[in-house]
Amino acid sequence: MKELSIFTIPDDVSDEYSVYVGNIDSDKIIKIIETKTPKADKVCIICDDNISSLYFNSLRDELVADNKEDFQGFYFDIAQRLFENSFEVIICTLPHGDENKSLENSQYILSLLEENDFTRDDLIISIGGGMIGDISGFSASIYKRGINVIHLPTTLLSMIDSCIGGKTAINFGNSKNSVGTFYNPCHVAVSPIFLETLPEKELLSGLGEAVKYSIIEKFYMVQSSHESFDQFEMEDSIFNVIRKLLCKKIAHSDVVNLIYRCLRIKKFFVEKDPFDLSIRKFLNLGHTIGHCIETLSDYEVPHGKAVLMGISHMLKVSLKGNLISENFASRYFDLINTIGISGNFQYSVSQIRSQICKDKKVSNGEISLILPCEACGVQEVAISLDNVHEFLSV
After folding, report:
1. DSSP designation for 52
2. 8 Å CB contact between 204 and 304
3. Per-residue pLDDT tens over the stretch 48-70
């Protein structure tokens, strides 16, 4: 078991939450709930229909002690244990897919909480991928100005990235994550064993964020330890763990290490810049173009795949600008191709530019973009919206 503590206000140890990475049983979850939310007597479990069909089956508003034969698995065991410990348990099931990270579904969550008399002392548990974590965190942040939330991520993407950092969001209009808040969970529990049942396309999608962290890892290592770092030579670097994962030569301990290394990097940026005003922007590598592709595809292109397409284009821009060598670019293009992602856009440059103009990072007629840099990991550039077309045409 590995553990991280995330300080939500820099240097303020009184305001923090813990992240567990490793095999976690229902007894541990119950103990966490009782410790972190001692006044809670109601729990709303939010999941999507995939998780619900696997673990909660026909469960409705209330668990009944004698119906356990209808259910199976770890998550049902959590719900059953909550019931046995006198918690009132509500299951909120949403349709899967990022297109359902909507205002309407957030309103549905809020209505359930209100109808069942949840107070600020009570608890939301999100069980699912990034979409469920985002909409659960957003709804928790605005219900009575803040209710407790614990995240149990079930996908690689949510385990290595979106489960921490406090960003919550829903999609609105034709923009991804355009309505949101900063709101931290009281705990995060990451159990990699659930990746064993994750569909391969979801696993590969999660590698999009992992590739991002493999590029940023050099910046993190230099800044945090002031040591030189070569992601291609270091055996347990994120880059090389991804390669082993793709070759099926990876042990459970390697998966735990991959998740932990990614979360450790994000912790570094989040604690230094909790509200995404400066250094945390580096975590947007590949995301500006990626979000455009997601939106234009009506979320048919999953987040991780879209981010990889964005990273691929940023590598081309960095190569043209002499920020990276041919060797550096070639290694990453090979890795991305092995994952099965093409760096070619499915949409016109004008379509992507139109989406970029709606991006929340636009300021004073410019968009902030993050480029891979071989010398220092990543660097930020500001591009005029008038010049975005040229930038996208590389």
Report:
1. I
2. yes
3. 988 877 666 544 444 444 443 43
Domain chopping of the chain, boundaries: 2-198, 201-393
SS (H, E, C) 162-194: HCCCCEEEEEECCEEEEEEEECCCCEEEECHHH
Amino acid at the residue 213 = Y
> What are the strands, taking DSSP E only, across 1-41?
2-7, 16-21
CA 349, 351, 352, 355 dihedral sign is: positive
Domains 2-198 and 201-393 in one fold: no
The segments of the chain whose pLDDT lies below 50 read 11-14, 58-72
Question: How far apart are the C-alpha atoms of 176 and 174, rounded to whole Å?
Answer: 7
Structure tokens at 110: 């809020």
The SS3 assignment for 123 reads strand
CATH of domain 201-393: 1.20.1090.10
Please name the amino acid found at residue 4. L
Token output for 124: 């939301």
Cβ contact 148:174 at 8 Å = no
Q: How many residues are present in the chain?
A: 394
Query: What is the pTM for the complete model shown?
Result: 0.91
| DSSP state string for 297-337 | TTT-S-HHHHHHHHHHHHHHHHHHTTSS-HHHHHHHHHHHH
Neighbours of 37 (CB within 10 A): 19
- Residue 169's beta-bridge partner residues? 180
- Class of the CATH-defined domain 2-198: alpha beta
